[in-house]
Amino acid sequence: HLKNVAKYNQYTNAFVDLTQPDHIRSQAIESTRRWESGTAKSAVDGAVMGYKMNFCTSDLRTTCSSAMLENFKAPYTATAIELLEKAGVIMGGKINMDEFGMGSHNVYSHAGPARNPFEILGRSTEEIQELEARSAGGSSGGSAAAVASNMCFAALGSDTGGSVRLPASYCGVVGFKPSYGRISRWGLVAYASSLDTVGTLTKTVSDAQTIYDIMAKEDPKDSTCLTERQRKAIADTLNPIDLTRLKDQDVNAKPLLGVRVGIPQEFNLAELAPATKDLWRRGIQVLKDAGAVVIPVSLPNTKLAVGAYFTLATAEASSNLQRYDGIRYGHQSDKNDEKDALYSHTRMEGFGKEVKRRILLGTYVLTSGSFDNFFLRAQKIRQMVRNDFDRVFSRRNAITGSCGNLVEDFESDNSAATRVHALLTPVAVSTAPKLKDVIGDQIDPVDAFLDDIFTIPASLAGIPSMSVPFGTCTKDGFPMGLQIMSQYGDEEMVFKVAKVIE
Ligand code: GLN
């Protein structure tokens, strides 16, 4: 960690605040002693992790990359991080992000943009200076860049509409967003509470699984976090795959025997780069070779998802960000000349351009004149997107109880053959764009919303989804990922399929 931070942090701008090296060393020594005496706390005891700047920690600042929280130090630590600390993980530092999680390229940051490290590994300083910097993705761009450049074993990100999966695809690492409610959000600064999910960035699928297992626990401090009883009930609804009919085949050589994977036709957009289509095709072949049955499926409401997401996310953000008023904490303007002016000066100075845009949009959709037309309609679309998934998955949604059409239909063999355990899609329309093309006024903010087109449906439905690196683009040599989704609560299926893709 220390060596690679010295080497790569200046370029990537991933870590914004770092733990004192001496502190890291002494914790590492303690951990080594535990390993030597056979008392290691977990498989990741002594591993160094980085945390996105929107996770509260009582040690370093929690700025959310905003001038509003420039000097904010939280009085407590997020539950997810507490659990990791109990498992012996060492905090390497806090990481760059888009302000309050709003963005797809980590360019809306008070700490400056994060840069994609993919091209710089193994190059000399002079060579690096010649390169045109690429986007690390966002909003957890710093987290993906930190893991990709080996500055930490793993990093925490947050995923509201794709913020862990998109940067993972751009930087060539594994990005995992578990089901909504699996990991406590206590201590994760809210952007859009009904969508915010704690996610991980790691080098491998099994690393993601290891740290997910540590964090996926009941937490009385977050009422949306699943209780142990609910977790058990979910596990009971996930009926096991019936392998009895396949007994003649070698299950070991074909790890996906009995698994059906769907290819959603609506994700096959005209805008998709040929290299992306090619990658997807290769992914399908890999799954087939592993014994999976791959079939086309339809998620008809996919095209409505982006509009619904940005209506709901901005509405929730406008409400969540009311708390930054300069009175209780955070930035306070020193211009206080007239009545009410303190609030407006504070917010004008403290928030960046994109955040202000989202607050305005969100406030607008919540006004009485547009509430029915925008907010309620978006909620209905969200339900339609959820139903689309329930209709294609063979496993029942433990939360809604829904499994598409009729129960008899669901249980009959005939219908089972058209239902799937998982879905495979691209993560992003293309590879990481050049930073100069996505910075400042180079990009229309509404066009930028389309970067999340493939990741948003899983966020609206709250289902688990993972971005797994799958080779590089034949055109520019940059990494690209494939996305695996499965039914609510079925993280195990995501891991199973992802390990074959990886
Ligand atoms: N890019 C999306 C947005 O700006 C997703 C962000 C996220 O997942 N935090 O809202």
TrEMBL record:
**Biological processes per GO annotation:** glutaminyl-tRNAGln biosynthesis via transamidation; mitochondrial translation
Task: Give GO MF terms, alphabetically.
Answer: ATP binding; glutaminyl-tRNA synthase (glutamine-hydrolyzing) activity
Enzyme Commission designation: 6.3.5.7
Chief subcellular site?
mitochondrion
Keyword entries, A-Z: ATP-binding, Ligase, Mitochondrion, Nucleotide-binding, Protein biosynthesis
Q: Which Gene3D superfamilies match?
A: Amidase signature (AS) domain
Query: Does the keyword Ligase feature in the UniProt annotation?
Result: yes
Recorded hits in InterPro entries, A to Z, give: Amidase, Amidase_CS, Amidase_dom, AS_sf, GatA
- Highest taxon of the source? Eukaryota
Q: Which residues form the active site?
A: K52, S139, S163
What reaction(s) does this enzyme catalyze?
L-glutamyl-tRNA(Gln) + L-glutamine + ATP + H2O = L-glutaminyl-tRNA(Gln) + L-glutamate + ADP + phosphate + H(+)
Q: Does the keyword Iron-sulfur apply?
A: no
**Subcellular location, record wording:** Mitochondrion
**Where does the Amidase domain lie?**
1-494
Q: What does this protein do?
A: Allows the formation of correctly charged Gln-tRNA(Gln) through the transamidation of misacylated Glu-tRNA(Gln) in the mitochondria. The reaction takes place in the presence of glutamine and ATP through an activated gamma-phospho-Glu-tRNA(Gln).
Q: Which family is annotated?
A: Belongs to the amidase family. GatA subfamily.
**Quaternary organization:** Subunit of the heterotrimeric GatCAB amidotransferase (AdT) complex, composed of A, B and C subunits.
Name the chain's protein: Glutamyl-tRNA(Gln) amidotransferase subunit A, mitochondrial
